Amino acid sequence: MQAEPKKSQAEQRAVAEPVSLVGEEYEVEVGPVAHGGHCIARTSEGQVLFVRHTLPGERVVARVTEGEEGARFLRADAVEILDPSKDRIEAPCPFAGPGRCGGCDWQHAKPGAQRRLKGEVVAEQLQRLAGLTPEEAGWDGTVMPAEGDKLPAGQVPSWRTRVQFAVDADGRAGLRRHRSHEIEPIDHCMIAAEGVSELGIERRDWPGMATVEAIAATGSQDRQVILTPRPGARLPIVELDRPVSVMRVEEKDGGVHRVHGRPFVRERADDHTYRVGSGGFWQVHPKAADTLVTAVMQGLLPRKGDMALDLYCGVGLFAGALADRVGDQGAVLGIESGKRAVEDARHNLAAFDRVRIEQGKVESVLPRTGIDEVDLIVLDPPRAGAGRKTVQHLSTLGARRIAYVACDPAALARDLGYFQDGGYRVRTLRVFDLFPMTAHVECVAILEPAAKGL
Fold it and tell me: What is the pLDDT of residues 88-97, one digit of tens each?
């Protein structure tokens, strides 16, 4: 029996490599919204499509942007709307749409519809990952807009106080396209706060720069620009339409260093001024810090003399609010991993003798403190959530109430499931639309020992 000729390496690769479906178009009925700013549809062969720029119930032509034959799902853009939803409007932003700027997800939806879609995502994540209905989570299903953001269809709130512009090879500022390093040049970002827009970043050239981040503080006139040069490039002379401090991201260590002006901006919330150094975290919406502090304090109801934890404390927003309310007989411990944020938090809270800020990861620092009992806990973890190990530890501390602040409903739901395993139940959940036109929401869950709710 004669052996078959051996296939060349090129022929072997051709057999092994899957067939790309990028550019293929499908006419589909659009199903429910999904976490991530898209809706779910299926091809005639049953393959799942995650489709952007569409709305539930529409019939569209979807063009594949990522994926291949046999993949679990494909990503696609709705490039033709055959049967539009009653919630559809023409996108107010001229840079929105398939293949354009990726900064917004729902420019094509009425504001009320955006909030309903976000509520559906939160409800689905709660059910799927924590086994909770909205009623069991103490939530009425409402997604609340921030003060001043409830605008008619076609109008866009200007809320984003921090915008990182990408710069193309010609020195033009723009924003990145969805899931891409490609840059969409723009002359104005509609969701940028007035303090960012007035700097005029988009109206000048930025030769040799990779990114230009603009920050407009809330409650002060502080403006800051953080420049990231391309390798070997020199900084341009920064002449903008308003006074700014200028920082530079160093190529060698990635650190942020002062070029001129203050190395921080001053933010205002809960009747306190907070120093936030370059690269430090602060809520992007100008109303967000006050909105979240109010929700957390209303949920926790701190008492004089309470011992409280503020985990992932950043520059000390919640620690400061707690310190005000627990008084001189109470105490607050904040834990934060960022070195600069810890420096800022210690500066911001220096007037409180009973506040201590420790640097390090929560899962490492908290066990070393020897704390085995607290009254209240606030945690505002990064997008990935706190995780099972940290939640298990927190569940042993006997807190009367726990406030969990979350920017990702999936991570929140997973951690709420872990808290249930640890003997805590969700007392109330509030959801805020602090990122209009995008798929993001902010949630505040208040937990208490399950036995208390029986």
Answer: 999 999 999 9
Decide if 229 contacts 171 (C-beta within 8 A).
no
Close Cβ partners of 135 (under 8 Å, ≥ 6 residues apart): none
Residue 315 CA to residue 72 CA, distance in Å, equals 41
Query: Is 104 one of the catalytic residues?
Result: no
Share of the chain above pLDDT 70, in %: 96
Query: Which of the four pLDDT bands, split at 50, 70 and 90, describes residue 344?
Result: very high
Asked if 311 and 364 count as a contact pair (C-beta separation under 8 A), the reply is no
Instruction: For residue 352, give both structure tokens.
Output: 């409180």
Cβ neighbours of 51 (radius 10 Å): 28
| 410 closest CA partner among 441, 448, 446 | 441
CA atoms within 13 A on the CB side of 242: 17
- 284 Cβ partners below 8 Å, 6+ apart? 159, 160, 161, 162, 434, 435
Cα dihedral 351, 355, 361, 367 in deg (nearest 10): 160
Reading phi first (left if > 0) and then psi (alpha if -120 to 50, else beta), residue 11 is in alpha
Task: State the burial class of residue 34 (Cβ atoms within 10 Å of its Cβ: 0-12, 13-18, 19+).
Answer: buried
Q: Does pLDDT of 355 surpass 80? A: yes
Q: Which of 93, 313, 407, 443 is catalytic?
A: 407
Dig out the tokens for 343 from the structure: 């420096």
Task: Report which residue type is found at 235.
Answer: L
Q: How far apart are CA 353 and CA 345, in angstroms?
A: 13
Beta bridge partners of 184: 175
H or E, element range at 13: helix 9-16
Please state, in angstroms and rounded to a whole number, the distance separating the CA atoms of residues 67 and 247: 40
Backbone angles phi, psi at 395, to 5 degrees: -70, -15
pLDDT of residue 252: 76
Output the CA angle 18-21-23, nearest 5 degrees: 150
Name the residue with tokens 């990231």.
Answer: 228
- pTM, rounded to two decimals: 0.93
**Which of 135-164 are b and which e, b meaning 16 or more Cβ less than 10 Å from the residue's Cβ?**
eebbbeeebbbbeebeeeeeebbbbbbbbe
Cβ pair 404, 445 in contact under 8 A: yes
DSSP letters along 301-343, please?
---TT-EEEEES-TTTHHHHHHHHHH-TT-EEEEEES-HHHHH
Size of the chain in residues: 454
Backbone angles phi, psi at 381, to 5 degrees: -75, 165
